[in-house]
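[Q] Does anyone have a clean structure-token version of this?
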Amino acid sequence: MSSYTGREFVKMSGSGNDFVMVDARRKAPGELADPAVIDRLCARATGIGADGIVFLEPSDRADVKLVYLNRDGTLADLCGNATLCTTRLA
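[A] Here you go.
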């Protein structure tokens, strides 16, 4: 069984982009951060369907830190729409 089986998520849309949002403040993303897993989860025809995955992680400087990975698993420096969704969810 994979480490992401049973993980809760929220799918959110922000100004035309949609994201898989995962609360990773208590449990690290683990396999969910693997590019192959992200690609399968974000696939529109066979997965959840999203532009990428957002992890809400603990922060020493703020209430929450967001980590956004594009659908191909690459780390994005910034995504305004992912930030919008993170703010709504947090």
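[Q] Thanks! Anything notable?
[A] Residues 42 and 49 are 4 Å apart (CA to CA).
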